[in-house]
Each structure stands twice: as structure tokens, then as C-alpha cells.
Design goal:
The chain contains twelve helices and ten strands. By secondary structure, it is of the alpha/beta class. Helix 6 runs antiparallel to helix 8, helix 6 packs across helix 10 and helix 8 packs across helix 11. The longest helix has 26 residues.
């Protein structure tokens, strides 16, 4: 298979690095300092589970570029950009698509697939959720520090040969992959985790474990999740109680884990608040459901973001 990884951050760098190590042709689409570093030194992946390796560009099997139109045709596109970039990125996928190319959204949130479908067609888009802790330590260096499960499925919930074949190939590359029988369920299941831990970590500046260990913050996380369950149910998604119970226990490899939203906030980058909490609020409004905990967290993060950006603007002005 020939893969394109659109967005070589933590998630794209890890999964792209895994399929490249396995011998597949991979086009990594990145920009700025990340692209420069990969061009000069390659993409280094440091995994708690798979060890360390470097993916080097050779111009044939492995390509690093910021120009999708020069990537050539591919079999699979992994869209790994942040949710706030989906609308901008979607039309740029078109030059890479063959008749049977699949576009896999490996992103946070529950609206990305709809956006991609508008540009590339419903028949091409697969949904996916990555339960993985991976981040960019420095340009060209990706660290995989927790979990790794990648679930992929058809948006209509039907089993398909193309999903099974892709999952099998990813498994052959050492990726913990699984075909989802109901990807919409899986996307909402992931949103439950994201809507609690990601934005609340920006407020608390705490790791997953620190938020779970204190009784008061534990209760807030739980209520954020309960509200997500209510909205999901209103949209016909009936999540198992066991999912929330497991999230509230966490696993040892996630206890010291800083969420991607907190890392982005601390580094002065845009954050995925709209794609996660904003999306939940919009879905709640569609059904007339009140979600006060999530609205409170949303408003608090918004003002923290505003203040952070004002500080950064002042610094850059000096």
C-alpha cells in the first residue's frame, strides 16, 4: 500500500513511522520547522512499546513534502491534522486520490468526517479513533508514550473488505488496529474521554493521574462525561457505562500523561476546544439539552486562551 500522512504531528508521525518501518511507501505531508527537520535528519520515532527508529527520505518510497499536489496518487490518506484545520486541508487531498483511495480521519471530535465528505465524497471517507499518547518532542522527533489502539470503520456502520484489509495491513506493521463495527459509537466513545480530560487539563494544568487522584476534580471529570453520555443518547448513541468507569480509573501509562490540548496551550499553539467541547455544545443545542459543566469549562478555557494570546502578543510586540 502507498500511504499519505497529512499532518506529521504526534499521531501522524507515530502511525506513519510504523507503516514506513514496515516497508510501505509513505508520503509525509508537513510544513515549517517539522518539514525542515525531517528533510535534514529524518523522522525519529521513540516508542515505549516498539523502541526507537529513524525514517529517512529517499525520494521514492519515503517522501517528505509540504505540497500534496506533488505527492502522487496514494491508496490511503491518514488525515491527522487538528480539527480546526480540517476545512482548510480537505480540498488539498484531491490531487492524491485515485478511484479507490480511502481517506481516514484520525482526529479528535465528531464533525471531521462530515467536512471531509463534502470535498472528497462520502464513499471515500472512513472514520477512526486513535487511543494513543503521542506528541512531538521537537521538530522531527515524535514520542509515543501511551496506549496505541487505532479503530477504523465505515461511516454507515457496515463491515467492509477495504476496512478489514487496511486493519490487517496495519496489524502486520505492529500497530494495534481494530475494525470498528460502529464507528459513530466509537467516535462518541472517544469524545467522552476528550471532552473531560483535554479542556479541564488546560484549567488545572494537571496530568490525567493528578486530575483523577483528587476527589473534587474526579467529580468534575465524571460530570463532564455524564453530560456527554446524555447528548450521545439524544443522537441515538447508547454508550456503555463501563466505558466511563474505565476512563475514570485510567491506566498506569496514562497517569503521568499531559493531554495534547494542555501541551498545545503551553506551547502557545491553537487548541482543539471548538472541535471537542464546542462540537458537544452544538450537538446538545440541536436536541435542547443543558450541559452546564461543559459550558462552564468551555467558557473558562476560552478566557484563559484569550489571556494567553494577549500575553504572547505583548511579548512579540516588545
Amino acid at each position: 500500500m502507498r500511504f499519505a500522512i497529512f499532518g506529521t504531528g504526534g499521531v501522524g508521525g507515530f502511525y506513519g513511522g510504523m507503516v514506513a518501518r514496515c516497508g510501505h511507501e509513505v508520503v509525509f505531508i508537513a510544513r515549517g520547522e517539522k518539514l525542515k527537520a525531517m528533510k535534514e535528519k529524518g523522522l525519529t520515532v521513540k516508542s515505549f512499546k516498539h523502541g526507537e527508529w529513524i525514517v529517512k527520505e529517499d525520494g521514492k518510497k519515503i517522501i517528505f513534502t509540504d505540497k500534496p499536489q506533488k505527492a502522487g496518487k496514494v491508496d490511503v490518506v491518514f488525515v491527522c491534522v487538528k480539527s480546526y484545520d480540517t476545512e482548510n486541508v480537505a480540498p488539498k487531498l484531491l490531487p492524491m486520490l485515485k478511484e479507490d483511495t480511502v481517506v481516514v480521519s484520525i482526529q479528535n471530535g465528531i464533525e471531521n468526517e462530515e467536512i471531509l465528505e463534502k470535498y472528497v465524497g462520502k464513499n471515500r471517507v472512513l472514520g477512526a479513533t486513535a487511543f494513543v499518547g503521542a506528541y512531538v518532542k521537537e521538530p522531527g522527533v515524535v514520542v509515543h508514550e501511551a496506549a496505541g489502539l487505532l479503530e477504523i470503520g465505515e461511516m454507515n456502520g457496515q463491515p467492509s473488505e477495504r476496512v478489514e484489509n487496511l486493519v490487517e495491513e496495519l496489524k502486520n506493521c505492529g500497530i494495534e488496529a481494530r475494525a470498528s463495527r460502529d464507528i459513530r459509537y466509537t467516535l462518541w466513545k472517544k469524545l467522552v474521554w476528550n471532552v473531560a480530560f483535554n479542556p479541564y487539563s488546560v484549567i488545572t494544568k494537571a496530568t490525567v493521574g493528578e486530575m483523577l487522584e483528587m476527589k473534587e476534580t474526579y467529580e468534575i471529570l465524571k460530570n463532564l462525561m455524564i453530560e456527554c453520555y446524555k447528548v450521545a443518547e439524544a443522537h441515538g448513541i447508547y454508550l456503555k457505562l463501563k466505558t466511563m468507569e474505565n476512563y475514570l480509573k485510567s491506566t498506569p501509562d496514562l497517569m503521568n500523561y499531559k493531554t495534547s490540548m494542555l501541551l498545545d496551550f503551553e506551547r502557545g499553539k491553537p487548541i482543539e476546544l471548538e472541535g471537542i467541547t464546542g462540537a458537544l455544545i452544538r450537538k446538545a443545542e440541536e436536541k435542547g439539552i443543558e450541559i452546564p459543566y461543559n459550558r462552564c469549562v468551555y467558557g473558562t478555557v476560552k478566557i484563559l486562551l484569550k489571556k494567553r494570546d494577549e500575553r504572547l502578543e505583548e511579548k512579540s510586540g516588545n
